[in-house]
Write a structure and sequence with these properties.
alpha/beta; 347 residues
């Protein structure tokens, strides 16, 4: 009970902060749009990434281009670095309508709107590189993603690549499926991530990300699974020795807007939001490829050993996830969508 009360209190405080932000940014907006001679349409976009991150850079590009092309009729206020709460909290605020746009992986949105099917876009071993990931972002999310998300009260605008996640460990490298057995690895507090590593035989733990550096250095966990840029941003290369390219999850982060808010925006501005979103999505993917290579170079310079899996081991790890694929196909009726995701990502 105490835990639930604390969680409710945290969400209530985050909602209050978002409401305060609304009052500050809208300044008593009467509800008229700029098109009607009133004030501009104000959109609040919240995310958890730092102001020097790849994600924030392209959110600011999104803001600047939308405001320019609408001639100031649509204005976007960005709240980075968890200013309005955690990823889960900002997603809940979008559902409630106190924040307009939030950002996160499909399985996180699945938790936010209680629709487990949304985790399908991040199934383990769905695609192994950024080209396959980009194809899903271009061809699947705008269509099937919209069809799945809109009935829950949210709508995808565009996606950013969170790259491919790999294992960074202090204790040993991973070359084979057998090497995963018993590894104490930090994962996000998301069922799909926990189940992925359980299926590999590891012991996943949901240590808060802010504690990961200390947890690894003190031996509480052997390491973490994350993308290269985040490793370097968090200086994990200082407390780890092995970066093993397990390629277990392709992270697609979706920027989604509250559906009621979307419907209140004139159609011509909706199209500008979608067009600009598609532009920055493509630019972010290209920049992500370069950033990943740069991050790996930083790790190697710090003494981290980078290794590929042994031949045939990626396929063994993928096969270990079959129960999860069966669940999504049988329980949620997504067998055809899974086949389409696999085909698109393999082009």
């Amino acid at each position: 009970m105490k835990k639930n009360l604390k969680k409710w209190a945290a969400l209530t405080m985050a909602a209050a902060l978002a409401a305060t932000a609304t009052a500050c940014t809208r300044g008593g907006n009467s509800g008229q749009t700029a098109e009607e001679g009133g004030e501009a349409i104000e959109l609040k976009l919240a995310h958890i990434y730092s102001t020097n991150s790849n994600e924030d850079q392209y959110f600011r590009e999104f803001k600047e281009r939308v405001e320019e092309r609408t001639e100031g009729a649509v204005k976007i206020s960005i709240f980075p670095n968890s200013q309005l709460g955690s990823e889960a909290e900002t997603m809940q605020q979008v559902v409630l309508g106190t924040v307009d746009i939030a950002f996160g992986e499909g399985s996180s949105w699945a938790n936010a709107v209680n629709k487990a099917e949304l985790g399908v876009f991040g199934l383990p071993y769905l695609c192994s590189d950024l080209d396959g990931q980009a194809a899903i972002m271009r061809e699947i999310i705008p269509v099937e993603g919209t069809e799945m998300m809109v009935p829950t009260g949210i709508r995808p605008l565009f996606s950013f690549s969170g790259s491919i996640r790999h294992a960074i460990l202090k204790t040993k490298p991973i070359y084979t499926l057998e090497d995963c057995k018993g590894v104490k690895i930090r994962v996000p507090e998301v069922t799909l991530f926990v189940d992925t590593w359980k299926n590999l035989g590891a012991n996943p733990t949901t240590t808060p990300w802010s504690d990961v550096y200390t947890a690894i250095s003190q031996g509480v966990v052997d390491g973490a699974e994350v993308d290269a840029c985040t490793i370097v941003d968090s200086n994990l290369q200082e407390v780890t020795k092995y970066y093993s390219k397990t390629g277990h999850i392709s992270t697609i982060n979706i920027a989604a807007i509250n559906e009621d808010k979307w419907q209140s925006i004139p159609e011509e501005y909706q199209q500008i939001l979608l067009d600009v979103g598609a532009e920055v999505q493509e630019e972010q993917i290209k920049a992500r490829k370069v950033a990943d290579d740069d991050a790996i170079a930083v790790m190697e310079a710090a003494g981290v050993v980078v290794n590929e899996l042994d031949d045939g081991e990626y396929e063994k790890m993928a096969a270990a996830q079959q129960p999860m694929y069966d669940q999504y196909a049988e329980d949620y009726g997504l067998g055809e969508l899974i086949r389409k995701l696999q085909e698109v990502s393999a082009k």
